[in-house]
Amino acid sequence: xxxxxxxxxxxxxxxxxxxxxxxxxxxxxxxxxxxxxxxxxxxxxxxxxxxxxxxxxxxxxxxxxxxxxxxxxxxxxxxxxxxxxxxxxxxxxxxxxxxxxxxxxxxxxxxxxxxxxxxxx
Length: 121
What we know:
The chain is of the alpha+beta class. Helices cover about 30% and strands about 25% of the residues. It has helices spanning about 35-50, 75-80, 90-95, 95-105, and strands spanning about 1-10, 15-20, 20-25, 55-65, 70. The chain has a 5-stranded antiparallel β-sheet, covered by helices on one side. The radius of gyration is 14 Å and the shape is globular.
């Protein structure tokens, strides 16, 4: 599965494609089946056709994680939580099951005022 993502120009926040528009929450994003490449390409093209709204439109791979879909790459899991290190702002403040699942799947990628993105064992 895939979702289409981009960065919104007005504030730099990460947004996701859903039926012809950009939405803020990862959990609201439209899922694309890997076997429907033409649908993914069409969504990317549609997203890129809005150059005054977003930049860096691209698909990301998803995998099941504890009953939810989550980005495969660690970087994309962090992006899905939002580009802030302030826990009272943006997607992290909204909480919810999807954000909690991403936090668990990413290995504690939530912020606490200062972000420790890489944990070494």
